[in-house]
Amino acid sequence: MGLHCSIESPSLALVLLAALVASTTAFYRPSFVPTAYHVGARRHWIAHSRIRYTSLEVSDKKKGYTFSKQAKSTGRGANGSTAASKKRQKKPDLRTQLEYARNGHAVMRGLLDPFELEPLRGELWEYGMKKELHAWRQKVEIAADSAKLAASCRTVQDCRKELSRLGVPDDSLPFLQYFNSWTSQPSVYNVVLKLAETAAILMDVESVRLYQDSLFWKRPGDGPTPWHTDARMAPFDTSHLVTLWIPLQPVLHDGTGLVFCSKSHADFALPFWNAVNQTETNPKSPWNSLDKRYQVVNDAQLVDYMPLSTGDVTAHAGWTLHCADGNLESDRLALAITYVDAQAVVREDAVSSAVGDNEDVWSYRDWVNEVPARTRGFRHARVPIVWPRKGSIKQ
Fold first, then answer.
1. In the chain, where are the structural domains located?
2. From start to end of 8-159, where are the E strands?
3. What is the pLDDT of residue 170?
4. Which of 38, 121, 187, 297 is close enough to 45 for a disulfide, judged by CB 3.0 to 4.6 Å?
5. Would you tell me how many other CB atoms lie within 10 Å of the CB of residue 326?
6. What is the pLDDT of residues 258-276, one digit of tens each?
């Protein structure tokens, strides 16, 4: 029996929403997916020790893009959603909240003004060009697990040589990532503030902290983004973390928008009973056949919201499995803003944990040791509380 929200019964719908949030987000701790199958008519990804891109049927694409001409909508999307409406949605409506609580992801069409995003893309393009060496060094440090080696790279070419030596060729990189541009780009921080209430509504929390923003630059020829969960890369012990993903240009049908595995954010049993570090020694591990676990048939449980117009925003919970296809054409820039419950505590092993993933350590290692572990409602300038904008945090 399906769950339907009636506008005529808002009080009942709110009760159902609260129940869904409580039941689908509590205590979930999944791990990074080193091996997985993504099987469908459009994609076929096969992984062993590293996910490899094997095939992609390209259709309905054009070289380049312009801001004045939005992506042509095919009307396709989760639950029959269409392209951005003329009237922008200012806050997530009740249906969006229900979809997010139930599936771990949602889309908000036209949430942002595309004319405001056009200059932002130009600013972040320049920012990315200036910080390119920094982004490459981050890739070297993660691949080698050595900050010293990364610091020794003086040029982008040095970084590429080290990555090649480590068995990480250019075409296997999914993107270049730039953390926390908000600290130097006021326009990014303005977007952070504008979307803070949206994050609070989706997480159903009273106060919200900015964890990080990330500029994802997917260059032509970059490989696929493998299945992963954002919260496993974060220093917090919480189930209340949300990422709002903002494409800075139209993303066409079969493009490089995010692909979500519905309800994976509520699969507590997967990491509890199945150690992720046993995937290579145990061929029968569920981590090696996620398509069967989630009954993926013809992409039925895999959802993307493409095509996406400039101004559309997708949201996904911290423990929702998601990925993206490789990029065959023009540069794709996306700004991802990650918020967390302001009452979430920092783990004492945030930097040294053998369970978590250290890929985002560049985002938080300059402040995480300055915050007392397991302290609720802490204050720090690098992770500011952004909602509510005025008022105190309950202790």
1. 29-56+78-117+173-387
2. 37-39, 43-47, 51-56, 105-108
3. 84
4. 38
5. 20
6. 999 999 999 999 888 988 7
